[in-house]
């Protein structure tokens, strides 16, 4: 299934909810970073956030993902954006980056911490961060007490068990971080940025005979339907933390 996802999503410049505007907003909310130390963008995909982070921070960014094809697309995009000297890439899992302890000033991760689990990701990143180091990530959660059954069943099938923003923050605190800022991604980050790219991507593969591709298309069709009907009940939050 992972390969089928990679195939269908390959041409997408953004592979999860988010936007340049939200990335810039999160960057504007960062506390001062340690003067030295690396900037990592983990689960970077085709580089939607990497290009913005590298542009705004004027520091080298090491972007990593487990999908080499996405990293190749990121290289092309970095060249086009005139940022190729500021961005390097590596193939690595977000919970096993291979980076040294006490080496990172900032760890960025949009729409990908769920792939390793929030707790595993935050714990690994805590050792990588220098004193005063910062984490900025996005994660999906319930926005209130409403838990529509259809939405809950769908999300449970394709995402780790989902919590609410308060429980997410408690987990962050327990992993050794303090809160710097937090905001909900606006609805446009779903519909205008991510889902708008999913629609043509799945139409391109709708007649494809590969059963795994057909399963991915079925899940995407369901995702669109669930978002349309229950999008107010859940969404992504941007969380900015510093290492305690
Ligand atoms: C929803 S996409 C988000 C990609 C990108 N950050 C964006 O916003 O467009 C999730 C990404 O996580 C990557 N991924 C999957 N498993 C991973 C892992 N164990 N470690 C790091 N990234 C992983 C996928 O290849 C994909 O690029």
From TrEMBL:
Keyword Cell wall biogenesis/degradation: no
Keywords: Methyltransferase, Transferase
Alphabetized GO MF terms: methyltransferase activity
GO BP annotation list: methylation
Domain Methyltransferase: 39-133
InterPro entries, per the entry: Methyltransf_25, SAM-dependent_MTases_sf
Keyword Iron-sulfur: no
Name used for this protein in its record: Class I SAM-dependent methyltransferase
């Amino acid at each position: 299934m992972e390969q089928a996802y990679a195939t269908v999503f390959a041409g997408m410049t953004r592979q999860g909810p988010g936007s340049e505007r939200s990335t810039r907003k999160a960057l504007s909310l960062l506390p001062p970073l340690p003067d030295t130390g690396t900037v990592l963008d983990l689960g970077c995909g085709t580089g939607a956030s990497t290009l913005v982070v590298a542009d705004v921070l004027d520091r080298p960014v090491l972007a990593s993902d487990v999908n080499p094809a996405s990293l190749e697309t990121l290289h092309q995009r970095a060249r086009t954006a005139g940022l190729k000297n500021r961005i390097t890439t590596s193939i690595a899992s977000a919970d096993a980056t291979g980076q040294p302890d006490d080496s990172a000033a900032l760890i960025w991760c949009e729409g990908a911490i769920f792939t390793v689990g929030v707790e595993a990701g935050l714990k690994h990143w805590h050792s990588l961060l220098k004193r005063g180091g910062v984490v900025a990530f996005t994660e999906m959660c319930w926005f209130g007490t409403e838990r529509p059954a259809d939405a809950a069943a769908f999300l449970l099938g394709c995402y780790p068990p989902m919590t609410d923003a308060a429980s997410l923050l408690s987990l962050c605190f327990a992993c050794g971080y303090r809160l710097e800022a937090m905001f909900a991604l606006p609805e446009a980050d779903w519909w205008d940025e991510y889902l708008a790219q999913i629609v043509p991507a799945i139409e391109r593969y709708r007649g494809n005979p590969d059963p795994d591709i057909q399963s991915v298309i079925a899940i995407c069709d369901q995702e669109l339907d669930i978002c349309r009907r229950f999008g107010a009940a859940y969404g992504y939050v941007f969380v900015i933390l510093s290492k305690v």
